[in-house]
């Protein structure tokens, strides 16, 4: 199913699912204004075409353990393909690095790191430096407040196609965890 074949209903299905992957199919159908069977067929087609990678739960980490979120920028000493590959392979093996982006513009990587506290973060950085994975310079930014959380990509806006209005927006909203 190529991108140009997606219609407004497909886009709305994707937009709603990324905000609530556990929405009941009957509620999804009602939210986009389609019959249950038509909605189910579209959902299955979107899955088979690879538009939906997976379904998962977002865990409220604050309920489990106290953590600090740290953003680190890193620049490598050398910029060969082999140096980038070595760094990236090492980063993939560090569970506390929850996101890593290769970027342009003066630095090489932006990492989101979760640690128990700043001391834990520093031990992690020390370990990374001891691994000799090519880090030349790093800067640390401690997150003091989350202003906006990621809740999905703005699919309709990025595709420049308005999603159809929903007859029942409540069915499409995320159900808060207790």
Any chance you could write out the topology, listing elements then pairs?
Blueprint: H1 8-19, H2 25-32, H3 36-48, H4 61-64, E1 68-76, H5 81-92, E2 97-102, E3 109-115, H6 118-130, E4 135-142, H7 155-158
Antiparallel strand pairs: 1-3, 1-4, 2-3
Helix pairs in contact: 2-3
Outline of the structure:
The protein has 7 helices and 4 strands. It has helices at 8-19, 25-32, 36-48, 61-64, 81-92, 118-130, 155-158; strands at residues 68-76, 97-102, 109-115, 135-142. A 4-stranded antiparallel β-sheet has the order 2-3-1-4.
What features would you describe in this structure?
- By secondary structure, this protein is an alpha+beta fold.
- It folds into 2 domains: 55 residues, Winged helix-like DNA-binding domain superfamily/Winged helix DNA-binding domain (Arc Repressor Mutant, subunit A, Orthogonal Bundle); 82 residues, Alpha-Beta Plaits.
- 37% of the residues lie in helices and 17% in strands.
- The protein contains 7 helices and 4 strands, in the order ααααβαββαβα.
- A 4-stranded antiparallel beta sheet has the order 2-3-1-4.
- A hairpin with a 6-residue loop joins strand 2 and strand 3.
- The protein starts with 7 loop residues before the first helix and ends in a 20-residue tail after the last helix.
- About 6% of the residues have low confidence.
